[in-house]
Amino acid sequence: MIRLVSNAEAEAILAVINEAAQAYRGVIPADCWHEPYMSHPELLGELAAGVVFWGYEARGGLVGVMGRQDLREVTLIRHAYVRTDFQRRGIGGQLLQYLLQDVAQPVLVGTWAAAHWAVRFYEQHGFQLVSLEEKERLLRTYWSISERQVDTSVVLALANR
């Protein structure tokens, strides 16, 4: 079942993100990896910035989360994670389609360039990689990330928006 996740469920959101993010260990640059992958203060900052999370609930708990940040000109898909024992069951795709239902403006997602599985997931759902120049402009405009992360990330845009 997909449902809106309240900000009071921060610990449950973090549990999903930090368990699923283990896939990045050894894949993304070592200087970009940290434990936990997302801290409680980082999540609170994302919530304060307007990221709203939806979750996929199964077996009495959250097994997947995905955030959406509606900005003036674009919508960003943020922090999309599914617990490893629930991956490859279509949960991420269901969450993504749910979050895109009522969005009319351009939709962007950023991810690590080395996370080929994540890039492939978004491409399978109608997103296309933007050019290097556009990636850098978009990341600096809509995300608050380090220059190192800008250098090692990609941006995908939902086609036909």
In short:
This protein has helices at about 10-20, 40-50, 90-100, 115-125, 130-140, 145-150; strands at about 1-5, 50-60, 60-70, 75-80, 105-110, 125-130, 155-160.
Q: What class would the helix/strand composition place it in?
A: alpha+beta
Calculate the mean pLDDT score and round it: 96
Under CATH at level 1, the class stands as Alpha Beta
Count of separate DSSP helical elements? 6
Oligomer: single chain
Largest sheet: 7 strands, mixed
Helical content class: 25-40%
Our measurement of the CA-to-CA distance between the termini, rounded to an integer number of angstroms, reads: 27 Å
Shape: globular
**What is CATH's topology name?**
Aminopeptidase
- Widest sheet: strand order? 1-2-3-4-5-7-6
N-to-C order of helices and strands: EHHEEEHEHEHHE
Name of the CATH architecture: 3-Layer(aba) Sandwich
Strand content: 25-35%
Number of strands: 7
Which stretches are low in confidence, meaning pLDDT under 50 for 5 or more residues running?
none
> What is the C-alpha radius of gyration, as a whole number of Å?
15 Å
Number of domains: 1
Characterize the structure shown.
The protein has helices spanning 10-20, 40-48, 91-100, 116-124, 132-142, 147-151, and strands spanning 2-4, 52-58, 61-70, 75-82, 107-112, 127-129, 153-158. It is an alpha+beta fold and 161 residues long. It has a single domain (2-158), classed as Aminopeptidase, CATH 3.40.630. The protein has a 7-stranded mixed β-sheet with strand order 1-2-3-4-5-7-6, sandwiched between helices. The longest helix has 11 residues, at 10-20. It is globular. The mean pLDDT is 96.
